[in-house]
Structure formats: structure tokens, C-alpha cells
Amino acid sequence: MYHRFGKAFYYFSIVIFLFMLLYFYSGMGEQVIYDLAESESGGGRIGKNTLFYGLIGFFIVLNVIAIFPAKMLETKTHQKLHRIFPLGDPYRDYILTWFYSFGGVLNVSLGIMALYFHAINNQEGISSDYFNFFFYLIPVLLVAWIIGLFALFVGKAKQLKS
To answer: Where are the bilayer-spanning segments (predicted)?
Structure first.
């Protein structure tokens, strides 16, 4: 049951990331600043299309890696996973929820990265300092989800012992 909420969050995060990326892409100049280093050139620059396709490629790779184990568990193609998390086991639902929500957290993190690129390239409208909270939120969310995974594994190990 819970994994359906994780799936909804995951698919919603995909839509939000793609919307944000396309919106920011349409507002960027031909050269995009990706580094605010103090130098005579004004920071690192990259082409708008290179950044866009790079972020899309990174997005696809991360999503395939994050969702592949959940899809293997759902479709029962990996017998060892299916033996550890059989149908009806509450930890099966928890682990599926974790994988889908982790994919959603990765997508939200990528959306925040796109927001960062937009903020440093649109200095007159948005100050990048205004979004510092969101930039520190990325590692906090990732660490919290990894701790949650270990908590699931500890719970499953206790269940298997008894």
C-alpha cells in the first residue's frame, strides 16, 4: 500500500523536474555560468545545450539505477530478492516505498541543482544566496534516506532471525 505513495511521489517528482528544467532552459542565455569562482572570466561557463542534455542524461542514469531494483522486485525477475521479500511481507512494501521515494528524492535534488543554475545565471531576479537552505537540503535528504534503508535492513534481519 505504501509503495503506491512512493510511486506517486516519484512520478510527480519527474514531472516537476522536467518542468523546472524546461522552464529554466528557456530563460538561459547561450552560455551558462556553472561556477561562481572569483576570476577575471567571471566563473566557469558551459553551453546551454550541453548543460541541458547533460542534466537530462544524468537524470536518466540516476533514475534507471534508483528504480531498477524496485522493478526487479515488483516483476519477480530476481528470484533471490523475491525470496527475501515475498508477496505479503510488510518489508516488501517498505523496501518498494523506499526505492520509489529515493528516486523521488534524487529527482528533487536534481531540480534543486537546476534551480541553482538558474539562480546564478539570473542574478538580477534571483539571488543564489536566497536558496542556500535548499542547497544544504540535498545532502540532508540523501543521508536521511540512506539511514532509512539501513533501518529497513536491520528490521528485516530481525524478522529473518525470528
So the answer is: 9-26, 51-73, 94-118, 130-154
Per the rule left: phi > 0, alpha: psi between -120 and 50, beta: everything else, 49 is: alpha
List 45's β-bridge partners, or say none: 33
The owner of cell 526487479 is: 72
- In three-state secondary structure terms, 123 is coil
Contact 127, 120 (CB under 8 A): no
Residue 34: all three cell numbers together = 556553472
Question: What dihedral angle (degrees, nearest 10) is formed by the CA atoms of 113, 64, 95, 79?
Answer: -170
Amino acid at residue number 64: V
| pTM for the whole structure | 0.82
Which residues are within 8 A (CB) of 24 and not within 5 positions of it... i.e. 6 or more apart?
114, 115, 117, 118
Rounded alpha-carbon distances, angstroms, from residue 33 to 41, 55, 57, 137, 162:
10, 14, 19, 22, 56
Q: What is the pLDDT of residues 98-155, one digit of tens each?
A: 889 999 999 998 988 888 877 777 766 656 566 677 778 888 988 999 998 899 888 8
Distance from CA of residue 117 to its chain's centroid? 16
